[in-house]
Amino acid sequence: MDYTSIKVERRGRVGWMTIDRPKALNALNTQVLTELLQASDAFAADAEVGAVVLTGSERAFAAGADIKEMQPFGFAEAYLSDFASGWDRFANARKPMIAAVAGYALGGGCEVAMMCDFIIAAESAKFGQPEITLGVLPGMGGTQRMARAIGKAKTMDLCLTGRMMDAGEAERSGLVARVVPDAELLAEAQKAAEIIAGFSLPAAMMAKEAINRAFDTTLTEGLRAERRLFAAAFSLEDQKEGMGAFVEKRKPNFRHR
Ligand code: CAA
């Protein structure tokens, strides 16, 4: 596929997707979604890819869903559009995915960052859900994922006032995992993704699946799911290799199965 709104490349075992609509501050239109889904499916199918990084530009990770595309919508277009379910599919990617965020991550941009497994933010990053200023509300999971990530107080504050949160506040709130200088953002994301991609892929995917259960079930059910996955991990060659290497005092060489 020829990509026009994103850039796609592989750096070792890490798949990179870079949103690339500089004139619109990487606003997320249907084309961006279509291309991200294509790239994400290709990385899912590529056995050499062990982790994925999603990023934007220095100025904007993404300044939201494309307001100009949505502006003429009526209820029927908004309701019938496949936009939200497409993003649901993107959020359900099974391989580990890191968001590397510099500049604006607003509205849909913040929501897409939250769809990733964790966020590494540059010091310049600014997060917000300013949909209220447009007469609407977040529509790509923002009210739900943010409330689960940072709790009710700050989610209400951000969604009801439309204000932006800088990288430091986002880290203190638990929205982002790490904050790094802007110049180090991409290298830091690559380094983190390489570490993940060096481990057993099925073990990493099971860990991701288990953690995500924490957000949509009870503690009892979540613990049960974790226990089943933990036991299943003992059927992996990588478990034999990982534990064998520890006992033999050598570095493990995971074969990713
Ligand atoms: N959609 C479409 N175009 C956008 C955009 C968006 N979300 N954000 C920025 N752009 C465009 C601007 O229209 C402008 O284009 P033109 O040069 O053709 O006029 C270009 O990007 C540069 O933007 P600005 O001139 O506004 O840049 P700035 O530095 O002055 O301001 C900003 C930057 C504060 C991020 C400002 O652009 C802004 O407020 N953007 C909108 C943020 C927003 O409201 N996002 C939520 C969108 S709704 C949503 O996401 C719904 C959902 O949950 C699904």
UniProtKB/TrEMBL annotation:
Known catalytic reactions: a (3S)-3-hydroxyacyl-CoA = a (2E)-enoyl-CoA + H2O; a 4-saturated-(3S)-3-hydroxyacyl-CoA = a (3E)-enoyl-CoA + H2O
Biological process, per Gene Ontology: fatty acid beta-oxidation
Gene Ontology MF terms: enoyl-CoA hydratase activity
Gene3D superfamilies (UniProt xref): 2-enoyl-CoA Hydratase, Chain A, domain 1, Lyase 2-enoyl-coa Hydratase, Chain A, domain 2
Keywords for the protein's UniProt record, in alphabetical order: Fatty acid metabolism, Lipid metabolism, Lyase
The keyword Lipid metabolism is annotated on this UniProt entry: yes
Enzyme class (EC, first level): lyase
Ranges that cross the membrane: none
E.C. number: 4.2.1.17
Function summary: Could possibly oxidize fatty acids using specific components.
Homology family: Belongs to the enoyl-CoA hydratase/isomerase family.
NCBIfam families xrefs: PRK05862.1
This protein's name: enoyl-CoA hydratase
Species per Swiss-Prot/TrEMBL record: Aureimonas phyllosphaerae
